[in-house]
Amino acid sequence: MSTTDDYPRFSDAEMARRRSILAALADEADVVDLLLYGADRTGAAVQWAVQWPVTREAAVLWSGGDPILFVQFANHLDNARALAKAEVRWGGHATMETVAEELRARYPAGVGRLGVLGPLPASALPALADIGAEPVFLERAFQRARYVKSDEELEWTHRAAALTDDAMAVLASRAAVGMTETELGALVEQAYVPYGATNHIHYFAVTAMEHPSVRVPAQWPSQRRLCPGDVVVCEISANWWGYTGQVLRTFTVEAPPTPRYAELHAVATAAFEAVLARVRAGTTGRELAEAAHLIEEAGFATCDDIVHGYVGGYFPPVVPGEGRPGRHDDFVLEAGMTVVVQPNVVAPDGSAGVQTGELVLVTDAGHEPLHRFARGLGRIGSAK
Question: 232-255 as b/e, with b when 16 or more CB fall inside 10 Å?
Fold first, then answer.
C-alpha cells in the first residue's frame, strides 16, 4: 500500500495484475471492450479496476489500454481525478448514453460483443442496442477471479480486520444500559471513521434473555434501549477502501447468561470450532456443512449461513443451515481465500439465538486468524 499521498493506493504491480485479469476475462469471452458499471455506492468492479469508490454512478470502459472512467455528478469529478487510476470524464446528462457515444465512435459499424461487469440496469440496454452492442455478462467469471486474494489485498484486509476489532472492543467497553440500537451503531463507527474507514455493516439483535423474541441480528437498527438482563448479538464489518473484516459476537447485559443462552452459545462455540478445524485448502463445502451438523444434533436450528466467502463480495462456499439446500457442496477451498465462519444457533421455535464467528484466511495447512478480538460469550457492564 502506498502512503505517499493523501489516499491509500495499490502499487503499479498490483494494478497491472488486475488489468491482466481483465484481459483474460475479455479474451475468454471474446468481447471487444469491457464495461464496468456501478451506481448508488454499489459495483465493486469499478473500485477494484480503477480505485474509485462508486458514488452516484460510474462506468469504466476498458479495451486493453488506459481505462476511461465516466462519473456522475459533475461535482464528483475533482475527487475522482484525485483518486482514480484512469482517464476521468463527466458522464454527461445520462451516463450510459455518454458511454454509448464513446463506443459508437470506436466502432462505427457496430460494437458487437461487449463484456459487462456490475449491476447494469435494464434502462441501459436500449442505448447499447442502438449501437449494435451485445452485452455479455461476466460477473460470475469476475467473482471467481477475486476469490483468491493477492498479498496487497490481504494487507488491506488485515487493516480492515483490525479496525473491525477496534469497533467491537468499543462496543464491549462503552455500550451501556439505556442506549438504543441506533446509538450502538454510532458508537462502533467512532472506532474506525477517524482512520478513513467507513461502515460496511453493523447489525444488532437486542432482546431480553428471560423473554426473548429475536433470533438473528437485524439489518436496520431500532430505537429499543438496552436493559439489564438483555442479550446483544452483533455482526460488525468496517470497510477499508473496499476491503472488510467481519466479527460476530454475543454479549449479555449486566447479568450472567441464562441457562438457555449459555447452552445456545456453547453449541455455537462447538460448531465454530468444528467448522474452523476443517478450513484448509482442499476442503469442500459439503465437508464444512457436515462439521456443523452438531447444531441439529444438539436440538437447535440455524437462521443465517454458517460459512461464506468474503471480501470483495459474498462468495462461495455459501454453507446454509440444515433444511436449506447447499449450492456449493462441491466447491473446493484454495489457499488465499478468505471466509467467514459464523454459526447462528437458534431455538427451534425461533424465539432466541446467538452468533459467534469471524473472517479467516485459508492456507494449505489450515487457516490463519485475521482478527484478534477475544472469542467467547462477552458481557456489557457488570453483573448486579
Answer: bbbbbbbbbbbbbbbbbbbbbbbb
Task: Please provide residue 90's backbone torsions phi and psi, each rounded to the nearest 5 degrees.
Answer: -75, 145
Neighbours of 14 (CB within 10 A): 18
Tell me the pLDDT tens digit for each residue of 287-346.
Answer: 999 999 999 999 999 999 999 999 999 999 999 987 777 789 999 999 999 999 999 999
Distance CA 338, CA 368 (A): 10
What b/e readout covers 305-317, taking b as 16+ CB neighbours within 10 angstroms? bbbbbbbbbebbb
Cell 436496520, located at residue: 220
What is 12-145's CATH number? Answer: 3.40.350.10
Cβ-contact 221, 185 below 8 angstroms: yes
Q: CATH 3.40.350.10 residue ranges in the chain?
A: 12-145
Residue 36 CB-half CA count within 13 A: 28
* Residue 118, phi then psi, degrees to nearest 5: 105, 175
d(CA 168, CA 289): 27
**CATH 3.90.230.10, the chain: domain bounds:** 151-380
pLDDT tens by residue, 202-257 = 999 999 999 999 999 999 999 999 999 999 999 999 999 999 999 999 999 999 99
Full-model pTM: 0.94
CA distance 242 to 162: 15
Q: Which residues of 192-230 are buried (b: 16+ CB within 10 A; e: fewer)?
A: beeeebebbebbbbbbbbeebebbbbeeebeebebeebb
* Domain 151-380 annotated CATH 3.30.450.20: no
